[in-house]
Design goal:
By secondary structure, this protein is of the alpha/beta class. The protein contains eleven helices and twelve strands. Bound molecules: pyridoxal-5'-phosphate.
Length: 357
């Protein structure tokens, strides 16, 4: 099995360590560990290895599913890997909506034959008819990220239902990575696909909405046959979720109302700041949910990468659109501390003023 290098992670690995201002992250500034009890008692494997049954039942309930239809994972990343391994093989075909977080495209490509369906700028609308055209008799999986990284676009309920119906008609699954859903305003949130019926698989985790990426805690929810296959793959990846992760996750889920409201307010205020900046500098973007904005490259720069390299020289890390196959854009994370975002935007203004050298 060959896997493409993860372009975004490689860019961050090269530039984020030691950067004065990091706006490369896609999440919310992380919460302090001392807001939680961090002593899980003994440090054994979590048993059963698919996660604590009571906690699984609680999380599964939000999808109208039972505990055996939910698997705890090390982050949403592992949930996506396991979902792909559980549903695809060399004989199968997947339809992936792009641009997207690279694992939602490159993992299917590593396993199966893939057709991409592109979101259209400037509003990154998804055309269900284009997905319908891409579906084949051997299609086993349709992959969506909602809200979408990098664009922040929320695909509305009707669009997601249309994709669910296409998956059902093809006797395939619709996998939706919903890790940014908790950052959307409650009245903007689309129903998780795992609640839509037997063809829906949702992945999520605490990294983004809760601001807890270092916990490495996520989950996969869906039909029992998929969850059970995913668990069998997990025996070879991480065996069980982390004991620390599950211990703190329980508390974070208990306090979900307060934590999500706090984080949402933070990203909404920061989004306003970035919106003002974009307007002032003539950069176009689709006002995003989540904590990443996909902005057009300023005049005077040849490409996203050229702009990002000039920013790196000024101590700021953002992500070139090239890592999403969209060289005319840059992805700016606005979930950072407000002072960090301000500092980054000030430096960005200096670089824009100077132009490409
Ligand atoms: C769409 C998407 N899915 C999954 C992940 C990874 O999430 P986690 O930290 O929960 O593994 C990211 C991280 O940026 C993401 O953007």
């Amino acid at each position: 099995m060959d896997i493409e290098p993860f372009a975004l992670e490689r860019w961050l690995a090269d530039h984020e360590h030691g950067a004065a201002v990091n706006l490369g992250d896609s999440g919310v500034r992380p919460l302090e560990a001392d807001r939680f009890d961090t002593d899980p008692g003994t440090l054994g494997y979590v048993v059963p290895t698919n996660g604590d049954p009571d906690l699984r039942e609680r999380v599964a309930d939000r999808y109208d599913r039972g505990a055996d239809e939910l698997l705890f994972t090390c982050g949403t990343q592992e949930a996506n890997l396991l979902a792909v391994l559980a549903t695809l093989d060399r004989e199968s075909h997947a339809v992936c909506v792009t641009p997207t977080y690279q694992s939602l495209y490159s993992l299917p490509v590593a396993v199966a034959d893939v057709t991409r369906v592109e979101l259209d700028a400037p509003d990154w609308r998804l055309d269900p008819d284009a997905v319908a055209d891409a579906v084949r008799p051997d299609t086993e999986l349709i992959v969506l990220n909602n809200p979408n990284n990098p664009t922040g676009r929320i695909h509305p309920q009707g669009t997601v239902e249309a994709l669910y119906d296409l998956a059902a008609a093809a006797d395939a699954y619709l996998l939706s990575d919903e890790v940014y859903r908790p950052l959307a305003a409650p009245d903007e949130r689309v129903e998780p696909v795992a609640s839509m019926g037997p063809h829906g698989i949702s992945t999520c985790g605490l990294s983004k909405g809760w601001g807890l990426p270092g916990l490495r805690f996520g989950w996969l929810a869906g039909p029992e046959e998929v969850v059970s296959d995913a668990w069998q793959w997990k025996d070879y990846t991480t065996i069980s979720p982390s004991a620390f992760g599950q211990h703190v996750a329980r508390q974070a889920l208990d306090r979900e109302g307060d934590l999500l409201a706090e984080n949402r307010e933070h990203v909404c205020r920061n989004r306003d700041l970035l919106d003002e900046f974009a307007t002032e500098h003539g950069l176009d973007w689709h006002l995003p949910a989540g904590a990443t904005g996909f902005l057009t490259v300023p005049d005077g720069f040849d490409s996203g990468e050229a702009f990002c390299r000039a920013l790196v020289d000024e101590g700021v890390v953002v992500v070139p659109g090239e890592t999403f196959d969209r060289p005319g854009y840059v992805r700016v994370g606005f979930g950072a501390e407000r002072a960090t975002l301000r500092e980054g935007l000030d430096r960005m203004a200096t670089v824009i003023g100077r132009g490409e050298r």
